[in-house]
Amino acid sequence: MSTTGRIIGVNGNMITVEFEGAVGQNEVAFARQGELRLMSEVVRIRGRHADLQVFEDTTGLAVGDAVEFTGEMLSVELGPGLLTRIFDGLQNPLPNLAEQCGFFLQRGMYLPALPRDTGWEFTPTAKVGDRVSAADTLGTVPEGIFKHRIMVPFRMRDVLTVEEIAAPGRYRIEDVVARLKDEQGEIHEIRMLQRWPVKLPIQAYAERLRPRDPLVTKIRIIDTFFPVARGGTYCIPGPFGAGKTVLQQLTSRYADVDVVIIAACGERAGEVVETLREFPTINDPRTGKSLMERTVIICNTSSMPVASREASVYTAVTLAEYYRQMGLHVLLLADSTSRWAQALREMSGRLEEIPGEEAFPAYLESVIAGFYERGGVVTLKDGSVGSVTIGGTVSPAGGNFDEPVTQSTLKVVGAFHGLSRARSDARRYPAIDPLDSWSKYASVVSDHDVAMARQMLQRGNEINQMMKVVGEEGTVIEDFMVYLKAEYLDAVYLQQDAYDAVDCATTSERQQYVFSVLLRVLRAKMKFDGKDAARQFFHRLTQATRDWNRMAMEAGEFKKQQVRLEAMLAEVSSHA
Amino acid sequence: MHKVYHRVDNIAGNVVNVKARGVKYRELAEITSRRVSSLAQVIRLEGDSVSLQVFAGARGIATDAHVRFLGHPMQVPFSDDLLGRVFTGSAMPRDKGPALKDGLIEIGGPSVNPAKRIIPRNMVRTGIPMIDVFNTLVESQKLPIFARAGEPYNPLLARIALQAEVDVIVLGGMGLKHDDYLSFRDTLEENGALGRAVMFVHTAADPVVECLLVPDICLAVAEQFALANKRVLVLLTDMTNFADALKEISITMEQVPSNRGYPGDLYSQLAARYEKAVDFDTAGSITILAATTMPGDDVTHPVPDNTGYITEGQFYLRNGRIEPFGSLSRLKQQVNGKSREDHRAIMNAMIQLYAGYREVLEKQSMGFRMSAWDQKLLKYGARFEKEMMDLTVNIPLEGALDLGWKILADCFEAVETGIPSKLAEKFWPKKEGEKKT
Q: How many structural domains does chain B have?
């Protein structure tokens, strides 16, 4: 029944196969090398020849080796037990692979993503006779801190009738928990486990909404100046060393969402290790449980097979959509989308397609757009709201944003956090450029105040540029004050110390509070005897405000320090 | 399966084509012609046409050359006998010692399972303040030195190798000048480190393609040492030559180039090597230091650019000094919180002030009047360059931190440095006759 073929060419991780029978685009196949079965995906079909990208190292494959086609597209397993886990791009659980193979990843080892023998406490919510359709809830099981919904498989097209539903009790994911009858009278057995092809979006919701509510990342420059909305999309392009990954790590820790999915795509393994070793030991202040309880890590680092990089971002977004279907707010962090684009470029080169700009394939833009469009906030059929927010880093060649991946991404995202080398060199972290970045979403403070602050930053920068030409002595004191105020705002608000226990995360309430105090400084009319006195005052004020940032808001010293700050301000304010 | 083929169809660059059956991808072959003989590796299969990359170069290969497929990919011998030895880029003895045949291991093996890695936690002390204080090197880190040709990156590598406490040093030379190779060898020998070192050296005079093997061989050997509980330091110099060899092969194979002629998979190729740096949770570790020369001193050149995205930071070597800007050790946060409580504060304050100094220099060169603050920065910058940045400075971390406080106190008031008040109270050196505030 299944189609088979023989290898007739090997070029890097691409094999060309001559086949008999029917083969579909994006179908999964296995190349046989003795006992070894190497997973691959059809990327092009020409007559009786199919080109396949192999998700593994192809060393040792020879012309004439057999290939088995499966008839299925690349799919992931969905069901309880995904949270806290670490998968590779093809959803193999990495710790289990380590148990089986030791230190190194072995080719051709594929393990089931979800544990088969774990029992889950099932509570039915549907009754016999109910009319249900795809994604309707049949029952729930507790998964860590969430109620995991067991849903009618998303692939079902008809309205079905519940013929039978399991009694409350413990079931494994492959046990039948319900039997549904479709319109043709056929009975479908429903298990907790379902599969879904990663490249197709899950669309079993009632309505897609406009992203409005802010997603608080607790990073001041983001939440106040360049906010992200739940269900929105944003990108962080930046040259290497500008702090993309630290920013992503901070967001994955402190962001105010239910579930975080981290897709480490073609980046350093060390960074993933930090996450996976540290998260279990960090408590999520919202739930009191470890951060790992809300996290799934998809890890396909740079030395792992290139073809599964592409799979890894799709695997991640599919898992995100799955949890969205439970009325949860999910944040997907993809680091870095450029590596995935490069994987596309490698394959396109091997296919000898006509290259576009910088040898990226011509379809790069539509592929990127299709990915970010899977983010969004939706109302589900039961009226609850769920969202997938996508934040992707981009690693532009040479740090130059005028390159195809950055440009294609900018067209489709709602916020742009551009990191700048100049800021990171000056150790001004997070190095998000306050002049270049933008966001289409609403801030946690009033947009009017933000506009005023941004204008001051802009003006301060202009004056700074001007001073480089005309010198400090050629600058009037009023302009000089604007420059100092802009620098002050930068130093105490835009910059944030990721390694300080308090300063690393600022809640939206604290942002509103602190920002209102800073606004008074920015608006104050001050009088100084000369520029040196002004500079000295701002040195002291900056120092005092930074100390304030390091004090917990509940602590008594926080109020005291604020009194001190206000006294300092009163001293120099002119009330004329 | 050791059938010999006699008919070479095409020879282009360093790639030859033969018609053969039953050949495996990446398999090794021995190619012998009248004048030359060399190892070659299968890099493409297309029907019964096999493309081979010839390590010694295709020069002198004739269409009647004999091609014998060996049935296995590239292997190197591994044993403790490697220590103290020098080999060529294809693992043949370069010194007068015997060829080693035992314990063959395959090179370019699979990637380490991320779940088996641990967070790096040990600082590598180098005695260089620009590294120890500002960009601490950490065991299992992968770090390149970006430099223009002509900068002393090789002596710097050798110095770090000697001062770092490691069990085994593996040196991989790619396109290394013969003099540089000799000076590496002599430096190691004079300091008694040759006995814990193994060198795979491809010199500038050797065929270009041969240097493609060097990183893989070095890292395969390093991996075996690490699995045997050794802390291994791998020095690779110069990775730009490696990338250029990749470029040459890919152009010969008519691949679509992505950026300045380099192949689209340059990032993956480099990453596959650098990612071998690892701290195993129950065995030893591999730390990789590489030299990457920047053609035209341009960091946006594809080789340093891709490298920077892969490695855990980079050191810029400019005018014989490690530049404080741009140089970065991504792993420093893992260790510099534990070294001494003032480490981070000193690091941040001194760099921010030095950035201020550079701005003032610019102003000064344009002839503007220097304010009181500018004067302070000028005084500070000069001392910083002399007492911290100079590569001849050789002091342990603690000494360097104390020196940092001293320089700051000589130039500034504590509030001007941006150091958290609590730390300043504790560490700020008291001037004579001054009361504690």
A: 3
Structure tokens at A21: 């029978």
Q: Confirm whether B228 is domain-assigned.
A: yes
Q: Which candidate in A97, A250, A273, A528 is best for mutational testing of the B interface (most B CBs within 10 A)?
A: A273
DSSP letter (8 states) at residue A357: G
Residue of chain A with shortest Cα separation from B325: A425
Interatomic CA distance for residues A525 and A520, integer angstroms: 10
Both B223 and B363 in a single domain?
no
Asked if the A447-572 domain carries CATH number 3.40.50.720, the reply is no
* B417 and B281 assigned to the same domain: no
Q: Would you call A501 an interface residue with chain B, using a CB distance cutoff of 8 Å? A: no
User: CB of A60 within 8 A of CB of A33?
Assistant: yes
ipTM associated with this complex: 0.86
Structural domain span for residue B51: 4-73
Single residue among B303, B337, B371 that ends a domain in this structure: B337
Measure in Å the smallest separation between the Cα of A161 and chain B Cα atoms: 44
Q: Please report, as a single letter, which amino acid is at residue A281.
A: T
- Surface of A (530-569) touching B: CB under 8 A: 531-532, 535, 539-540, 542-543, 546-547, 550
Give residue A51's region: left, alpha or beta (phi > 0; psi -120 to 50). beta
Q: How far apart are CA B96 and CA A187, in angstroms?
A: 78
Among the partner residues A359, A400, A532, nearest to B300 by beta-carbon distance:
A400
Show me where the domains of chain A are located: 4-73, 120-192, 205-439, 447-572
Task: Say whether domain A205-439 belongs to CATH 3.40.50.300.
Answer: yes
The CATH number of the domain covering residues in A4-73: 2.40.10.170
**Judgement on whether residues B328 and B215 belong to the same structural domain of the protein:** yes
Q: Nearest chain B residue to A356 by CA: give it.
A: B258
Same fold, A4-73 and A120-192: no
Report yes or no: A424 and A241 within 8 Å, Cβ to Cβ. Answer: yes
* A131 vs B: CB within 8 A: no
pLDDT (tens, 9 = 90+) of chain A, 576 residues, equals: 589 999 999 998 999 999 999 999 999 999 998 889 999 999 999 999 999 999 999 999 999 999 999 999 999 999 999 999 999 999 999 999 999 999 999 999 999 999 999 999 999 999 999 999 999 999 999 999 999 999 999 999 889 999 999 999 999 999 999 999 999 999 999 999 999 999 999 999 999 999 999 999 999 999 999 999 999 999 999 998 888 888 998 999 999 999 999 999 988 888 888 888 888 888 887 788 899 999 999 999 888 888 889 899 999 999 999 999 999 999 999 998 999 999 999 889 888 889 888 889 999 999 999 999 999 999 999 999 999 999 999 999 888 999 999 999 999 999 999 999 889 888 889 999 999 999 999 999 999 999 999 999 999 999 999 988 888 888 999 999 999 999 999 999 999 998 888 999 999 999 999 999 999 999 999 989 889 899 999 999 999 999 999 999 998 999 999 999 999 999 998 754
DSSP assigned state of B164: S
User: Nearest Cα to A242, choosing from A17, A390, A492, A418?
Assistant: A418
The reported pTM is 0.91
